[in-house]
Amino acid sequence: SYVLTQPPSVSVAPGQTARITCGGNNIGSKSVHWYQQKPGQAPVLVVYDDSDRPSGIPERFSGSNSGNTATLTISRVKAGDEADYYCQVWDSSSDHPNWVFGGGTKLTVL
Amino acid sequence: QITLKESGPTLVKPTQTLTLTCTFSGFSLSTSGVGVGWIRQPPGKALEWLALIYWNDDKRYSPSLKSRLTITKDTSKNQVVLTMTNMDPVDTATYYCTHRPSSGWYVQYWGQGTLVTVSS
């Protein structure tokens, strides 16, 4: 089955840029989606199809995807961006297509 | 405005069957391409996809849980039901109902989630 690998944690100072990676075999050939989850809340979609933003998501959130790594970039980080972030793909390459999530990355704003 | 809400038991005993209902509004499950699914999250752990049902009644299941899951829809009631058999304490999790848009392989909207505890 397809595996997505995320770093458990990323720390960044306010105003700096945070980069959260999502690794997978030839992930560049898939569409990657990113969710933000704050404590006690349901996840929220922040980037879809590698680099598109849903309505209402700040331009500070951006995504890229190439080769074996997809990246969520958060510019000018704010305290309110502190949350868990999950990447997700639709894996249609196996006999049993399914939705796959990464293990999540906790973003800490110092 | 699209909303989804989960309902069902908060506590089930080991070996019992869990039945969760998702009641949604703001869209129709008759619209081509639309899907409603379920994702769970054990306390302190990552998200895990469970199942998805499409507007045309096509169904997809997590390969690792397929033998225990059944997903159905009642379009007239705007409801989707998930059943999971042979519950175990490791199935303790928050279960989310989710909306898949007609043109994407992602979750566009989430329910608030419902915590299900499996314990005798």
Features:
heterodimer; A: 110 residues; mainly beta; six-stranded mixed β-sheet; three-stranded antiparallel β-sheet; 9 strands; globular; B: 120 residues; seven-stranded mixed β-sheet; four-stranded antiparallel β-sheet; 11 strands; 49% strand
Note the overall shape of chain B. globular
Rounded mean pLDDT score of chain B? 96
> Class by helix and strand content of chain B?
mainly beta
User: What percent of residues of chain A adopt helix (DSSP H or I)?
Assistant: under 10%
Instruction: Quickly count the helices of chain B.
Output: 0
Q: What is the global morphology of chain A?
A: globular
Q: How many β-strand runs of chain A?
A: 9
Order of helices and strands of chain A: EEEEEEEEE
Account of the 3D structure:
The complex is a heterodimer of chains A (110) and B (120). Chain A is mainly β and 110 residues long. Helix content of chain A is 0%, strand content 45%. In chain A, the strands form two sheets. In chain A, strands 1, 3, 4, 7, 8 and 9 form a six-stranded mixed beta sheet that branches. In chain A, β3 and β4 form a beta hairpin. The mean pLDDT of chain A is 95. In chain B, β4 and β5 (48-54) form a beta hairpin. Helices cover 0% and strands 49% of the residues of chain B. Chain B has 120 residues and is mainly beta. The mean pLDDT of chain B is 96. In chain B, strands 2, 4, 5, 6, 9, 10 and 11 form a seven-stranded mixed beta sheet that branches. In chain B, strands 1-3-8-7 form a four-stranded antiparallel beta sheet, with no helix packed on it. Chain A binds chain B through residues 1, 31, 33, 35, 42-45, 48-49, 54, 86, 88-90, 94, 96-104, and chain B through 37, 39, 46-49, 52, 60-63, 66, 96, 104-108, 110-113.
